[in-house]
Structures are given as C-alpha cells and as structure tokens.
Amino acid sequence: MKRAVFPVFFDCCTEVAQHIPKRWLRRVVKYERQKSDDLCRIPAVILHTRRKKVCVSPLNENVKRWIKQMTRCCQKSDPEIWKKRKLRRGRKTMRKDHIFAMCKKEICATQ
C-alpha cells in the first residue's frame, strides 16, 4: 500500500472575471494573489467575501486601485492620525475617511 508523504490539495482559479462591480470590493474580507506557475496555470486575484470566492484578472483597473489603497492603509501605523488632519476642503476629508473606513484589520493581517 502506497501512501502520499505530503497529501496536499491545491485550489486554483481556472477562470477569471475581467470585470467586477466596485460595490463588491466593499465586501471583501481578504484577498490572495495566484501566480501562474506549475500548480496554477493562470494569474489571478482571489477575493474572499463572507460567503464567496471570486477570481478576478490581476489586470483589472478597479482591483489594482483597490489593492493599492489597501496596501497604503495597512502600511500606515495609525489611521487615526490621518483622520485628525484638517484639510481645507471638506470633500477631501470625507474621501480620506472613506478610504480608511475600508481598511480592515483582516485584510492587513493577511498580507
């Protein structure tokens, strides 16, 4: 009887969506990057929501922008400092607060 030394299962995306609505990005709990190597054949970004996993093209502009915002948020040690800054225009302040409201501890922990 032969037994596998390391029984491992790989969960790879076989298809990617080219377009994803922006409102879906608000629901993302964590994300992963899938590289195209021997195990998985296509590059993808796997977005995890509470109930689903969605495979998206890494070339999608909305996803690129969202990942960039999340990495910026996670690099800032204290987002409260940014909230306390006073900007001349109220609109910019709202925009900054909205970005940091999207920063989630779960997403930062997975990077």
From TrEMBL:
Per the record, the major location class is: secreted
InterPro entries xref list: Chemokine_CC_CS, Chemokine_IL8-like_dom, Interleukin_8-like_sf
GO CC aspect terms? extracellular space
| Taxonomy, superkingdom | Eukaryota
Pfam families tied to this protein:
IL8
Q: Which organism is it from?
A: Thamnophis sirtalis
- Keyword set for this entry? Chemotaxis, Cytokine, Disulfide bond, Secreted
GO biological process terms held by the UniProt record: immune response
What are the Chemokine interleukin-8-like domain coordinates in residue numbering? 9-70
Q: Identify the coding gene.
A: CCL28
Subcellular localization: Secreted
Among its keywords, does the record have Magnesium? no
| UniProt-recorded name of the protein | C-C motif chemokine
Tell me a Gene Ontology molecular-function term this record carries.
Answer: chemokine activity
Disulfide bond found in the keyword field? yes
Family label: Belongs to the intercrine beta (chemokine CC) family.
Which PROSITE patterns is this protein grouped with?
SMALL_CYTOKINES_CC (PS00472)
